[in-house]
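ARCHIVE CARD
Drawer: 12
Card no.: 0347
Subject: one protein chain, sequence and derived structure
Cross-reference: see card 0346
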Amino acid sequence: MSKQFAALVARENDGAVTLAQESVDESFLPEGDVTIKVAYSSVNFKDALAVTPKGGVVRDYPIIPGIDLAGEVVASESADFEVGDRVVAHGYDIGTARHGGYAELARVPAEWVVRLGDLSARDAATIGTAGFTAALSVEALLNRGITPDDGPILVTGASGGVGSTSVDLLAAAGFEVVASSGKPEAAELLTSLGASSVIGRLPEDPEAKIRPLGKAQWAGAVDCVGGNTLAYVLSTVKYGGAVAASGLTGGSSLPTTVLPFILRGVALLGIDSVQLGIEHRRALWERISGELRPQHLSAFTTEVPISDVTTVLDQVRAGQFTGRAVVKVDGGF
């Protein structure tokens, strides 16, 4: 007999997208090897886009949003996972083309699933896509050979989920971190995470034309904004430095020149956590359980029950939310 479970289902009608709690049958879930009882999910900008008309991330409705999910395996057709395993899954099509974490149950292919080590399901969902992207960015800079002795690291969009976790991880690794944010009220939080200084948005004049090369200031950067901000950052990175870029809230265009690359040897490192191969994904989660574990998760995390997630989605869409929102699914409906 099929099981009924609670879910937040987004449906599209006449150009509008609604998100409402429904009781759905287990047959509503797609095919997959691993069925997970979801304990926690989270709120990301992509989740907000999933419930926004013409948001550009959902292929077809209805969809259960939630690009992150963490919980316990309740059924498995894979030899790699057993009932009772604590797991996390994110990226790929989860929450965009395949039902995601805003439900009591989720079903995904085994090759999308990561077994948790010492992390709790709550911590794994809190880290989620944003924290994983931050860890991937920091890993890329470290693999590039950048060390604390090379100089400060800039983090743009520092008050968001990727940015705040990046500040935390970089500071823990011994770097001098300069956090750039358009939210003055986030300065105290960013300082508590380890930022040596907090500055406003870059460039200071958003209408100014970006110089091909500016004053060299940063050994490297984690850019969560894109657009003019990324162009400015590239023009101010020191010789041999690198920028790990993962965001486009500032726009998808990049008004720069080749000069930072051919005159300063700057590297632009593209960061994608969605289609990253599972072996790299699982290996990085092991590091996140160890030396790349965020030190101040509770400082920038707000827990909300799944019943209140719509309010947070609206805040994230409007750029009014700071830090991370972890969503309590089990017992939260």
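Annotation on reverse: The first helix runs from residue 45 to 50. The CA atoms of residues 113 and 213 lie 43 Å apart.
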